[in-house]
Predict the 3D structure of the following.
Amino acid sequence: MEKQGALKKIDLQQLMAPAGLVIIFIAFSFLSENFLTVSNIMSILMSTTVSGVLAMGMTYCIIGGGMDLSVGTNMTLSMIIMALCMTSMGLPIMVSVLMGILAGTFIGAVNGFLIARMKIPPFIQTLGMMYVCKGLALVISGTRPVYLDNTWFLKVTTGTLIGSIPNGAIVLLIVSLIAYFLLGKTIFGRYTYAIGSNEEATRLSGINVIRWKIAAYALSGAMAGIAAMLTCSRLSSAQPSLGEGYEMEAIAACIIGGASPKGGEGSVQGTVIGAFLMTVLLNGLRIMSVPAEWQTVVEGAVIILAVFLDIKRKGTK
């Protein structure tokens, strides 16, 4: 009987996010005739691409018992590097994109190394790196946007290959499938769960915790690089002042999707649902002409509610 009760609790937790998404979607469909339109649905897909990709990497960090507050400004710095490689250096598009993703991966790996090897708390380390990336993006760009005019690259996010579905949404789908495979079907995923559940026990069992922690943060950085490509393509430019705030959207998507702030729990599919839930909620509020400042209040309240429900589910005080 106790096992059945535990299973019911788990099933309820897993159903809360998708149920919430469906309820919010239906509610706004009735409240506004402008919500359930093809153009608005495509807008929701586009709006979820960047936050969704960033949340994929954040999922690994949170499951592993940490977090990455630098993903937003890491994306900005990677975007500046990517754009400058295309313009000032004249490198081919694919090489420039690779350079941006590698830059993001390197920053993530540095975070992972300092957290795992030097024992710097994840919150402090990634908060510091957030400002380092923000400053470097401003310095490298000279505080000015870097504009792009390559037609092919500009279609990477906003173009369409399958019907009217934007390419950015297809990239999000591909990234999600890869993240799902790594988390659920590989040693990397199993060790990430183990580290988040009990790091000391994992270390004593002979697993190289430092290596796998670095890998998790490097993956988060790589996702920031991919998000940089999507953002750069969508805006036709690299904006050095962009990036702050994205880390909170990524964390919100993970927590709402069932990832525990204490580590050891979470899933890619839950994160995707959490990302769409936040996007649909904010999109609906915007269509209902709710002031932007109140949208931010609602976003924060949803995060608090998600953490509260996680605590209640575990029966902690």
